[in-house]
Design goal:
- With about 250 residues, this protein is mostly helical.
- It has one domain: Hypothetical protein af1432, CATH 1.10.3210.
- The chain is about 60% helix and about 5% strand.
- A two-stranded antiparallel ribbon has the order 1-2.
- A hairpin with a 4-residue loop joins strand 1 and strand 2.
- It is globular.
- Belongs to the HDDC2 family.
- This is 5'-deoxynucleotidase.
- Its EC number is 3.1.3.89.
Length: about 250
């Protein structure tokens, strides 16, 4: 909510109105009465909560400063992330898939995987959701680099690290930027139980998408199944992958 608000009080009611309305309204005083405790309680609650709306521009600035991100830097960051919505996943493009998914499409369904997965002891599901939606975020700058591009894993990782640093600086380098950076690094290094399960989600989402393109467009995308076979690290990843492969066999 933008702009300033006028706090209008009677003995038992509090009204918040844009300051431009100040000259347009007059309020009659309502006397406080022990016969109406509900009204008195509502007035007290409104009075306590009203401070969060007064000088809200200043509060917004303070909150942004705490997070190390201004409104301007947040919008700059989000505008850069728009590329994730428009950049198509290169593996499908190279195999002539019609209207292939974007990078953002891929990350979104991975986020859903983390959301719907059953609770696993020792796994922070909320962290998995966050990791899923940032693991490919650097591709907003470097694009979707695939093994067929002839770029080593080391070079790919270096490019993505530099891109991520740029994006975190663009965001303002505060708490949220640091969180994104740590989540991305944890995933990249496969250094936690959450990273391992999100790595599996990455592969599961890819072969599920491959199966869908085979069914919808008649492509033979067996190479995607072969490239992930035996590489799942978690019981959940293995179970979901096995289900997808089983469904594929029934159609072939």
């Amino acid at each position: 909510m933008g702009g300033r608000f006028l706090l209008c009080k009677s003995s038992s009611l509090v009204f918040l109105l844009p300051s431009s309305y100040a000259t347009q309204f007059r309020f009659k005083s309502f006397s406080s009465s022990p016969k109406n405790p509900k009204l008195n309680r509502m007035a007290a609650e409104a009075s306590l909560s009203s401070s969060s709306f007064i000088n809200n521009d200043d509060n917004t600035t303070a909150l942004a400063a705490d997070n190390g991100s201004t409104t301007s830097s947040a919008i700059d960051f989000l505008s850069l992330c728009h590329r994730l919505k428009t950049t198509k996943r290169a593996g499908w493009v190279k195999r002539d898939v019609k209207e292939p998914e974007s990078i953002a499409d891929h990350m979104y369904r991975m986020g859903l995987m983390a959301l719907i997965s059953s609770d696993i002891p020792g796994i922070n599901r909320d962290k998995c959701i966050k990791m899923a939606i940032v693991h490919d975020i650097a591709e907003a700058i470097v694009g979707d680099i695939t093994p067929s591009d002839g770029i080593s894993k080391e070079e790919k990782s270096q490019r993505e690290r530099e891109a991520l640093d740029h994006m975190c600086n663009l965001l303002g380098g505060g708490l949220r930027a640091k969180e994104i950076g740590l989540l991305w690094m944890e995933y990249e290094e496969n250094s936690s139980p959450e990273a391992k399960i999100v790595k599996d989600f990455d592969k599961v989402e890819m072969i599920l998408q491959a199966l869908e393109y085979e069914n919808e467009q008649g492509h033979d995308l067996d190479e995607f199944f072969q490239s992930t076979a035996g590489k799942f690290q978690t019981d959940l990843g293995k179970a979901w992958a096995a289900e997808i492969v089983s469904r594929r066999r029934k159609r072939h």
